[in-house]
Amino acid sequence: MHSILNRIRSPRLVAAMLLLAVVALRIFPATAQEGIALPAPATDLPAGQASSAVMVVAGGCFWGVQGVFQHVKGVSNAVSGYAGGAQSTAVYELTNDGTTGHAESVQVTYDPRQVSYGQLLQVFFSVAHDPTQLNRQGPDTGTQYRSTIFAADAEQAAVAKAYIAQLDQARAFKRKIATTIEVGRTFYKAEKYHQDFLVRNPTYPYIVYNDLPKIANFKRLLPSLYRDEPVLVSGTR
Questions:
Q1: How far apart are CA 167 and CA 2, in angstroms?
Q2: Which amino acids are annotated catalytic?
Q3: Does the CA dihedral 230-39-153-184 come out positive or negative?
Q4: How many other β-carbons are positioned within 10 Å of the β-carbon of residue 184?
């Protein structure tokens, strides 16, 4: 499944895996898709006077992570891309074998006067992915699907580190958080066909099974941060 599904995400193959997954879920119910209502970070960045700031995170396939952050109040843009490797290898066909150092990532531009960096991390850990999975998310495996916070500076890194420690100490998850923190990595925008993928392909089997539940969980668990109309890279549906 990994060698085929992860590389091309074929609708026919994913549909077959979806059927198998539905059967499996009747025997082994999946809790990863339920999300979890987490407290906000005890330590956060001050709003300051700036009207725009940027956060970059990785949590598995960027389709679903982008889709979640497009629904966050105060977010003006959420772009799918790659971070962790060189510019020359920031291409989907090269990153999908896990040897480039890149992770499928999302660059979130937001207004810190409306939503804080800590609140975005709250969304990231609560509903955007399962932070306890090491180098994988759902059916996708490899370092390109790792859980990582690409901190822009030491201040972002400190808040992220403190929040991970806070959640681990509270035993918010059944397993220890596997999310890593990488500072100073460059983000590279992904190909056009990857942008707004969830919004434009809501019936795509991979999206239906793996990603739409994240949006539903977000609306249910963190309603104060959720907005119905997603902000799109293209600007229009």
A1: 30
A2: 61
A3: negative
A4: 10
Each domain of the chain, given as residue ranges in start order, spans 2-222
Distances (CA, A) of 187 to 8, 31, 66, 216: 22, 31, 14, 28
> In the structure encoding, which two tokens stand for residue 44, read together?
């956060």
Distance CA 134, CA 145 (A): 9
DSSP string, 125-180: IIII--TT-SSEETTEESGGG-EEEEESSHHHHHHHHHHHHHHHHTT-SSS----E
Q: pLDDT tens across 3-51, in order?
A: 333 444 555 444 444 444 443 333 333 344 689 999 999 999 998 889 9
Where is 111: in which H helix or E strand?
none
Assigned CATH for 2-222:
3.30.1060.10
pLDDT, tens only, 197-214: 999 999 999 999 999 999
Provide block-wise average pLDDT over 10 residues at a time, the chain (237 residues). 40 47 37 80 93 98 98 98 98 96 98 98 98 96 98 98 98 97 97 98 96 98 98 83
Residue 24 DSSP class: H
